[in-house]
Structures are given as structure tokens and as C-alpha cells.
Amino acid sequence: MDSLYIVVPCYNEEEVLHETTKRLTDKIDRMIAGELISQDSRIMYVDDGSKDKTWQLIEELHGQEPRVLGVKLSRNRGHQNALLAGLMTAKDLCDVTISMDADLQDDIEVLDEFVRKYQEGCDIVYGVRNNRDMDTGFKRNTAQAFYKLLKFFGVDAVYNHADYRLMSKRALEGLAEFGEVNLFLRGIVPQIGYKTATVEYSRGERFAGESKYPLKKMVSFAFDGITSFSVKPIRMITTVGLVIFLVSLIMLVYSLVVNAMGHTQAGWTSMMMSIWLLGGLQLMAIGIIGEYVGKAYMETKKRPKYIIETVLRDE
């Protein structure tokens, strides 16, 4: 039997850690009894520079429960970097990992199905939501728009999948080959290849605490995903620029005709064409190109994606 590490990124999760640990250890025990995983299976919490007592609780849980391990980052690096830190630490300690959030919204009862898919030869198994009944109408519509935008811009991402996924050691070694600083794991993981599968599940309500992804953060996350995997926005600028150029030629002819007929005031044509149309287009184009330049700038620095301060392992 293979050893399983459940990797759980945490940021200010002191309200849920005890309950999360209780449910996950119980689930691991049942999976071991069912001979799905080995006795060496563990829970690995990754503290992403929390400001509350999250790390203190992880240390206490590690002392009380041998199945609980911990990784502490030196500072807050964001969910994706924290998750990557946990996966790369677990890569050398286990045969397979499953990543999930600490808020207990992901249905842990489908962990058995994840492992069975792995045993059938799948290196990556995606947890896919089968409905969004728990979401508000606004969140449901924005989430659907997010995945449609990713697809439109050519980003290879699994629909209704977040970061609830299984990855084999071989898949993790493939993930380690990706060196980009701007992380969007939902787009990177499908690039690894190997045999994949999906497991559908119903997402529940958050056990306690508040969501770490408000609307502003979700919009930024979506924009990062698009600009990290697609140059289509820049190509769209080129297309729009060509269309505007053709329209401008038509408007030039129209303006000359109207001016010759004496129906315009001095300066009207130039003001309309330059200020309102081209000014807005240029600002939009500069902003989008600037986003790509900024990402390229960060990549050339080759700064570490995370720095691990402490690791709590088996004695």
C-alpha cells in the first residue's frame, strides 16, 4: 500500500484546525483499515505566515497526534506558493498527495475514490464540483464567467476544479520542473500530462472563519491565471488596433466631407478622434502590456517562491 500525505495550506485558520484534524485523522484511520493507504500516511499543514495562533496550534497538534506534520513559511507568500511548498516537501516523504483547503468545504468522503483512481493508474485526479447550490447567485455567475474566460483565452484548466486534487510522486516531480514565479497551479498541473481522472463531489459550507478569497482577490487571481498562460490579450490589442485604424480611415473621409460642407466647428474632428477613442485605447493597451512586462520582470529576478522556516516531521 502507498503512503498518502494530505497537504493543507493554512492562513489564519485557528478556528477550524481542531475540527479539520479530527475529521481528517478519522478519515485516514478508516482508509488504513480499508487497506487503501499505508500506516505512514499523514496530514501536512502549511502555515502561510498566519497572524493568529495557527502555527501554535499546528505545533500543539503535532505533539498530540503523530499523524500531523507542519511546515512554516518565513512570511506570507499566498495560497499558491504555500500549497507548492507543502507539495514539494511531501514529495520526498510519501507516494501520493492530496491537496485541499482547511475550511472543510471539500468533501473528504471522496478521498477513497481519489485513491482508487490513483490505484487504477491515474497520476493526477481532479476534484470537480458537481453543483454550486451553496453559492450566492453572484458568486455562481462570477465563477462560471471565470472558467469561461480561461477557456476563451486558451488556458487549459479543468472546469469547476479548484485545488482539491491528487498527485502521484511522478506528477509532483513533473511539477517541480516548472520554474515560474507567477504561480497558477490550476493551469500548470494540466501541463504535466500523464493519465488523469476526475472525481465529482458536493462542496459544503465553511465550518468556521471567513473566506480568504473575496471578490477583489478572485478578480486578481483570474487575471493572473490568464496573463500567466495566454498571450491572447496582446493579440486582441493588435486586432482592436487594426479595426480602429480602419474605422479611423472611414471617419477621416467622413470628417473631411462634413468639414467641406461647412457643418463642423474648428477642432471638433481632432478632439473626437484623438481624446475619446485613441486615448482610451492606448491606456488600455499600455495597461495590458504593462502586466506582461511586470510578470517578465518578476520572472527574470528568479526570487524564491517561498522560504521554509520550520518543518515538523516524524521523530
Automatic annotation (TrEMBL):
Q: Where is the Glycosyltransferase 2-like domain?
A: 6-173
Q: Which branch of life, at top level?
A: Bacteria
Q: Name one Pfam family in it.
A: Glycos_transf_2
Q: Does this entry carry the keyword Electron transport?
A: no
Protein name as it appears in the record: Glycosyltransferase family 2 protein
> What's its membrane topology?
Multi-pass membrane protein
Task: Write down the InterPro entries for this protein, in alphabetical order.
Answer: Glyco_trans_2-like, Glycosyltransferase_2, Nucleotide-diphossugar_trans
